[in-house]
Predict the 3D structure of the following.
Amino acid sequence: MYSKDELYYIATDLLHRLIATPSVSREEGQAAQLLCETLEKNRFTPHRIGNNVWTLAGKYDPAKPTLLLNSHIDTVKPVASWSRNPFEPAEEEGRLYGLGSNDAGASLVSLLAAFLFLADSEQPYNLIFLASAEEEVSGANGIARALQELPPVDLAIVGEPTAMQPAICEKGLLVLDCTTHGRSGHAAREEGINALYKATEAIERLRRFEFPLVSEWLGRTKLTVTQIEAGTQHNVVPDRCNFVIDLRTTDCYTNAQAVEILRENFPDVTFTPRSLRLNSSSISPRHPFVRRCILTGREPFGSPTLSDQALMPFPSVKIGPGESSRSHTADEYILLDEIREAIELYTCLLDNLQFEKNQCNSRSARIAEPRPPHDT
């Protein structure tokens, strides 16, 4: 049996080494190897598919439900404004600095520590630990590929920085390539139809547009125009203007439904989704894991940011140490006390947790039950 101090040492030592091992999305090979070596050192058999690494605690029992502990090993590229080496772990005044320390290295190593603790005793579920790749880019060779290798999962705990509050639903992501069309002409004469003007008029209407349904947990579907491009040279009226929309959907709409609503309301714009697969996800607030969270004083909330939950066709909860506001920033850090707290809370919430096989499908379910009292 591991002591809590031993688990803390294993977690923080591994996080130091992960920070020192560059693992930008699609370049996680060395970090994956590090995870394999760590599992082997702790007497578990690692399985690797691409840069995804997973292991099973004990013998798989098909009669039991299956719990997945998951976080990602990839990071974004460091921004230019770092004041220190992003790949050199540094402890200062209770903080551990380094790229990926907060997003999501602390969650990864804390979940691994919880896995080691839970695997030491008989649990009423099968237990799997998965360190996945390409989360930051929602890549095809990330968790979607890894899940094909795993037995059916009934509940996932997804490690992301949430200050150890349970996100029981999160917004989806829809990137839309949009086009308005006009007719070219000479800029010096009154001729042509300016596609750029049509686009700016549409963008102004899009800025004011609101989807009718409002999610109780996630609020409104959020639409943001983020890029625009038009024209070939200064004296030619542009006959085509392209712009990009970042759309964050809620549990009120599937991504496909959101696209159709925009097409109905903006017939002068062509909307082409890059992908429809990153839908909003949710779990019932009555799920046993969520109830345990509430009993320990945690407050369920709806998350505006996307994670690998979007690719999980089963119930999942996003919960992990750190703050989302520190992610993707210069001089990213995690508080060492946050790691210790996360290990303690994960083990408390998951030890002997009772939940059913195939309890519900987070893809089709909507949160319809009364929510517990809390402020969002």
Remarks:
- Helices lie at 4-19, 29-41, 101-118, 143-147, 195-208, 255-265, 288-295, 336-350.
- The first helix runs from residue 4 to 19.
- Residues 359-376 have pLDDT under 50 and may be disordered.
- The radius of gyration is 23 Å.
